[in-house]
Design a protein that fits this description.
mainly alpha, 14 helices, 0% strand
């Protein structure tokens, strides 16, 4: 076995197989939802140059994948008991290599945020800290669901701070609606590995973005209807108190983050609908390549 920082576990694949391991490890099927987060907040804050937007998305991509690498490194003992198919327990990559990849990705992601200016650097550092704290404590405390929701909310703030007009009240309110959705999704996902019971109020939180858009006035009714119907489809059969395999529901709801972002953007521009719709479809397609959870 190699002795360098990227050494793999005995019997680990090489070439295309190693790429597949990294895709699974980084849960890349969720990246379209990261990009849609950036796009929604970017639009709400006035947009800006394409170059800045793509740098924002690249930085967010590195922070997300770095966080996922760190998640597996920290959770290795849990995964050896409950998620033996994950890359480290199954011997596809060494624990040391995953720690190395996590550190490099997280630092590089924050540096890209810093290149966008002082405010993105500060908000980006806050996001980095939330990611690290989440990964370290989420299996040990119920605060994990709060931290996950806070990560997505903070990404909205990062994206808005990098745009032309910067932070505003609308971005904050739309970000809070997204955080409510993520909070409900995270509560549902907590029982994924152990087939825990579904909580009624966690299901209710999934409809907060649609309700918030209606209250704010002049929502995109087509997108609102699509978001509500998608949530209903994903949670069908997920009744409060009933223990069941909720992994498909969680995966579908993760892809649904894109619909929440499209609703948050509040635009009825046909081209942007197509962009968000494309990201939604891409998230579903990528779930066939790398599991979302």
């Amino acid at each position: 076995m190699q002795s360098g920082p990227l050494s793999t576990a005995p019997g680990a694949p090489s070439g295309a197989g190693r790429l597949q391991v990294l895709l699974v490890l980084g849960r890349v099927s969720n990246l379209p939802t990261v990009w849609s987060n950036c796009l929604a907040a970017w639009l709400l804050a006035g947009g800006g140059s394409a170059g800045r937007f793509f740098m924002l998305c690249f930085g967010a991509t590195l922070l997300y994948t770095g966080g996922m690498f760190l998640n597996d490194a920290v959770d290795v003992d849990f995964d050896r008991q409950h998620r033996t198919e994950r890359p480290i327990p199954s011997g596809l990559i060494s624990e040391r290599a995953v720690w190395f990849l996590a550190g490099v990705s997280l630092v590089a992601g924050w540096l890209l945020m810093a290149f966008l200016g002082t405010s993105p650097a500060l908000y980006g550092f806050g996001l980095l800290m939330l990611i690290v704290v989440y990964d370290l404590v989420h299996k040990r405390t119920k605060l994990g669901v709060w931290l996950m929701a806070s990560c997505r909310f903070m990404l909205y703030l990062v994206a808005a701070s990098a745009a032309s007009h910067g932070m505003n009240l609308t971005v904050g309110l739309r970000g809070l609606a997204l955080a409510a959705y993520i909070f409900g999704l995270s509560l549902l996902a907590r029982g994924e590995s152990t087939q825990g019971a579904v909580r009624a109020w966690s299901l209710g939180l999934l409809f907060v973005p649609a309700v918030a858009a209606l209250v704010a006035g002049r929502p995109d009714l087509i997108v609102a209807a699509g978001a509500v119907l998608w949530v209903l489809w994903c949670v069908r059969g997920a009744f409060p108190g009933v223990r069941r395999n909720i992994r498909p529901s969680v995966a579908g709801l993760l892809a649904g983050i894109v619909l929440v972002d499209c609703l948050a953007a509040g635009t009825q521009n046909g081209t942007l609908r197509v962009v968000f719709g494309g990201l939604f479809v891409l998230a579903l397609v990528l779930q066939r390549v790398a599991p979302a959870t």
